[in-house]
Design goal:
The protein is mainly α. It is about 70% helix and about 0% strand. Helix 2 crosses helix 5 (about 70-95). The longest helix has 26 residues, at about 70-95. The chain has two domains: about 15-70, Arc Repressor Mutant, subunit A (Orthogonal Bundle), CATH 1.10.10; about 80-200, Tetracycline Repressor, domain 2 (Orthogonal Bundle), CATH 1.10.357.
């Protein structure tokens, strides 16, 4: 909860905490934190810098969160929940055909650029105690979905497990090359062709 004193803006004007609270919700701070993580990594998440980016004083932050760790927890929870909902929605919209579902999964993952950057940044922070368990859950969930889809596409259980691990390793490796290292530099057409090649290579054909 905010103190009775009004926080002071960078301009020197007094800003009542109720007004700071009204301008930004906890969700706004969480999305702002994720955008900052995507650009600067987990270590780059700083409350004062984030407040400046959002155009408010720190009074709004302390209305919603106790400290930086509480914001990071909330932002990671939001990213994980949003990722789960989006993943299930895109796969479900593809219907029951297993190859179509796998194709939808690959195309969704390849099109979520901001999600790519957040994930790549989180991969660089696996030694952080708040990041590692969440990343383990997300990765396990994605590989489980892949394994089920590969089994439904006709692969035996062991082969489906191997193919799921190979597919996920290819995804993580591509992130490291394309997002973290900015290599290779692909045009939109080249990238789309790459995604289709991955689908053609990894998704089993019927029969």
């Amino acid at each position: 909860m905010p103190s009775s004193a009004s926080p002071t803006a960078d301009t020197g004007d007094a800003v009542h905490p109720d007004r700071a609270h009204a301008r930004l919700s906890a969700t706004d701070w969480e999305h702002g934190a994720l955008a900052m993580i995507a650009e600067e990594g987990v270590a780059g998440l700083a409350i004062e810098a984030l407040a400046r980016r959002l155009g408010v004083t720190k009074g709004s932050f302390y209305w919603h969160f106790k400290n930086r760790e509480a914001l990071l927890d909330a932002a990671l929870d939001r990213w994980e929940a949003d990722d789960t909902r989006a993943l299930e929605s895109h796969i479900g919209a593809a219907g029951d055909d297993p190859r179509a579902r796998l194709g939808a999964l690959f195309r969704w993952v390849s099109s979520e650029i901001q999600s790519h950057r957040i994930y790549a940044a989180l991969l660089q922070a696996l030694d952080h105690p708040q990041v590692k368990p969440m990343m383990a859950r997300v990765s396990r969930r994605r590989m489980d979905l892949l394994e089920v889809a590969f089994r439904r596409a006709g692969l035996a259980s062991e082969h489906a497990s191997h193919r799921a691990r190979l597919t996920y390793a290819a995804y993580v490796g591509f992130l490291q090359l394309n997002v973290a290292l900015e290599l290779p530099h692909l045009s939109h057409e080249q990238y789309d062709a790459y995604v289709e090649h991955v689908i053609e290579t990894l998704v089993p054909h019927p029969g």
